[in-house]
Every structure is written in structure tokens, then in C-alpha cells.
Specification:
Length: about 170
Amino acid sequence: MSLSISALGGYDTFYPIYSAAPVNRVDAADRVGRDSRNIKTEPNDKVKKGECQTCAKRKYVDGSNEFNVSFKAPGHISPEDSAAKVMAHEQQHVANAIAEGSKPNKELISATVSLHTSVCPECGRTYVSGGNTHTVIRTTSDTSNPYAKLQQRMNRNFSAGLNFDKSA
């Protein structure tokens, strides 16, 4: 039996109330062959399990310039394991950013990870096709350096009259 989730309640409720209701079974539609004739689909036809050729040949490789992360050489990941392994790989990039942000005069502002999903054109299986890690690291100025202090003073003096309010 299949279940669907639908929201009950109207706009006057603060939280929607959810309930599960059975869904009517839909019979399989006939497939169309190459010569436009219908191929009868039996209810007992099962989708074959296993990896298709496209999924079996799919390789993952890292495109970053960090040397201490996985998948520098192309490697295979099964569609079932792709989410966990790609997320673990992206967490290696986050760990590198945390290490970089803990250095003197550095501060890690943010690190975000995005996973990308795709659908296999051959078997229709959904898998994680890759990921991105975006980090923002701020370099703080060293106030003990006399040249940095002089540079800050020059920048302050240079930008003092750049903003002029004519209406005041």
C-alpha cells in the first residue's frame, strides 16, 4: 500500500496538520516500440536491479588545487554510496579551510558545501554527481608591523575627502 502526505487545515492554523492517506494504485501503461506498436506491460514486470553500464563506468575526480584530498586520481563510486563519499570528500576541503583559518592573521568567515544530484539517463537512478565547497577566509592586518601601520595611515588620509555630501 502506498501512502501520500497531504496538509489539512486552512490558512487560519499556524502549523499545518499532516495525515497519511492511501493512494489508489495506478496500472502500468503500455510501452511503445520503435515501429509505433504497443508493447503490453504486465503487472508482474519488475525493474531489474543492479548497476547499468553508465553507472558502472562513472568516475569521480577532484578538480581543486589542494593536494591532500581524495579523488585526485579518477575513481568509481556506486550510486548508493555517492552521497556519503562526496560529502566526506567535501568535508576534507572544509577541514583544510579550518586549518588555514587557524593560522596567524587569518580568520575563517564561512564554509558552505553544496552537493549536486543528477539522474542516470540509462537506468533512471538518482545519484550525487559532485559537490562544491565555498570558503571565505579573511586576512587580518598585523598591527605590530610598522609598515602596515604606515600603510593604514596613508589609506585613511587618502580616503578622508572622497565622500562629500553636498546637501549638508
